[in-house]
What we know:
The protein is α/β, with parallel strands linked by helices. The chain folds into two domains: about 25-215 and about 260-290, NAD(P)-binding Rossmann-like Domain (Rossmann fold, 3-Layer(aba) Sandwich); about 220-260, no CATH class. It has eleven helices and seven strands. The protein has a seven-stranded parallel β-sheet with strand order 3-2-1-4-5-6-7, sandwiched between helices. Helix 2 crosses helix 10 (about 265-275), helix 4 packs across helix 5 (about 130-155) and helix 5 (about 130-155) runs parallel beside helix 7. The chain is globular. The N and C termini lie far apart (about 60 Å). Bound molecules: NADP nicotinamide-adenine-dinucleotide phosphate. NADP nicotinamide-adenine-dinucleotide phosphate binds near residues 40 and 41.
Amino acid sequence: xxxxxxxxxxxxxxxxxxxxxxxxxxxxxxxxxxxxxxxxxxxxxxxxxxxxxxxxxxxxxxxxxxxxxxxxxxxxxxxxxxxxxxxxxxxxxxxxxxxxxxxxxxxxxxxxxxxxxxxxxxxxxxxxxxxxxxxxxxxxxxxxxxxxxxxxxxxxxxxxxxxxxxxxxxxxxxxxxxxxxxxxxxxxxxxxxxxxxxxxxxxxxxxxxxxxxxxxxxxxxxxxxxxxxxxxxxxxxxxxxxxxxxxxxxxxxxxxxxxxxxxxxxxxxxxxxxxxxxxxxxxxxxxxxxxxxxxxxxxxxxxxxxxxxxxxxxxxxx
Length: 318
Ligand code: NAP
């Protein structure tokens, strides 16, 4: 390599392959039913789309019917069959009904993607008991109820299957400002390891999949607000991306070792690999798709700011 080639800004990790492409053979999921919780929005919808492109019959489940219906129409445009089932995963009876509906529509799901979760930033001292319970109940307990129902039905049927739990890297590091979600995701990661061993003998794989920073149009205002404070205006919802917004997106990427943020389809590709016939000996593993962002360390860290300061909150008043 010449000296000239080394001049200027390094390129970062290469851009992902184009939308609509896949590393797996066409039809890899023909005849497989894939159930994705939270599959009507954001990363869950992106994961569902990649399974659909490979031939899966999709079942997407979450609470809000309107969002589910519009995602169902969008996903059906990729060619496969799609069913949308309204469900709160905190309720084990509703969870059983989702599986009943899936079986009535297409058959027993062979793949479960536990993607639904709840999250919002809040300093621990301001967190209400209800806020704690809501996030832990959805993210951890709901994930367990879905996995349990999948496991029970597969054991009864003597059928192999694959579960993917969507996690977060603060399962390892802790998540200042997100104590509820980080604790719940640590539990989700632990479930991967417990259930992979319990259910391996029955042919059920259980893996975790952790996204890095992958902005998408369905991000909640709370999460968007957090990113905006770190990087003003970059994630604005309004209108088409302007030149200014594009350059601000670049700034957010510049804070990642990859020098770019992730594209949701990159998570979808990883999910389709983990549940595929090409990953049958991978179980109990949590794969991180974040361009090494969570391992980033400096010799000298930025000055400490309290979580209250980071969130623009005044002093704690009790
Ligand atoms: P999101 O936009 O907040 O979507 C959450 C989904 O979960 C929604 O579809 C929501 O639908 C569903 N949901 C929430 N509560 C539910 C309940 N009680 N029962 C059933 N469904 C429920 O999240 P996202 O950004 O796409 O993230 C997807 C996953 O990746 C999550 O597990 C998240 O923790 C993880 N993650 C994301 C990032 C990121 O950069 N975006 C980074 C790290 C980890 P309803 O409102 O219709 O119920």
